[in-house]
Fold this sequence. Notes:
By secondary structure, the chain is α+β, with helices and mostly antiparallel strands. The protein has helices at 34-43, 66-73, 118-124, 192-198, 208-218; strands spanning 11-12, 18-19, 22-27, 47-61, 78-85, 97-103, 108-113, 126-128, 132-149, 152-165, 171-176, 181-187. β10 and β11 (171-176) form a beta hairpin.
Amino acid sequence: MPTNYKVPTKILFNRGDELSFRKEEKLKVDKNKLIDLLDWININKGYKLYENRVISSTYFDNKDFRMFKDSEEGCVPRKKIRLRSYSKDKHSVGNTLLEIKISSVEGRYKTSSKLFNLNKALSIGILDSDYGICMPKVRVTYTREYFSIHNVRLTIDQDIKYEKINSDGQNIYLNTDPNIIVEIKADMGVPIEYLFKMFPFERVRFSKYSRAINYSLIGDVNA
Length: 223
């Protein structure tokens, strides 16, 4: 990422609320042991927050795939730009959010907005102050389950599908990821020691965007 990139200490939503940083950790859980995880959630008095829903995200990057490279290298600060909707159908006006996720030394946070031109973003790209012109590269679709356990949100993502977007903006089906991804999200005030004690699972790095790009460039979703 450009060296002059600066992460603001706070972001304001349109409604005027301050956007807080949060901790995010991904847990390594074998897909064949998902039933064991669900049993663990039940034993620990976890409960479902919402009904399952499909999430669809289209990720943007510049011609050099700089955001992908920053993610692979784990450098901070770094950024992801994506469109998000809650349907397997194409993104539509009014039902799609433009989201920017920033990982910084201070933590991670996300901004969301419906105030953007969807057709313009998909056809000619998004101009970002740090990465320049960014075009849609891949679309990732999956099913998410939401739980609350130990006062922390836990999500389980399954049936993760990756699609490459060609120069004409058309989706080319790629593959279904054989993995599931489990993530916990907590306020910055929650001690890391608490998370390790209450969630005794191995941690893992997992980026759906990086996985999608790795597969489209290398052809190996297990990379």
